[in-house]
Amino acid sequence: xxxxxxxxxxxxxxxxxxxxxxxxxxxxxxxxxxxxxxxxxxxxxxxxxxxxxxxxxxxxxxxxxxxxxxxxxxxxxxxxxxxxxxxxxxx
Length: 91
Hints:
The chain is mostly helical. 40% of the residues lie in helices and 9% in strands.
């Protein structure tokens, strides 16, 4: 099974390392978690849309979708079909 742990060393302003050892979707997950924890995306407000993240990072839609699904699985966001992924309160 693939390692899905969040790689260290990525902050809210980090650029993705397309040639590095960590999968790009996990790098994006780390960046998004850092942004959520910094407060860039307030609780109960959406993170940028898939299209917005595709444009910002130059990734495929499927890669960004995988990141959003992983953020949901980790409890950072709740995905609402047709509306986006909304930041959940953290304990």
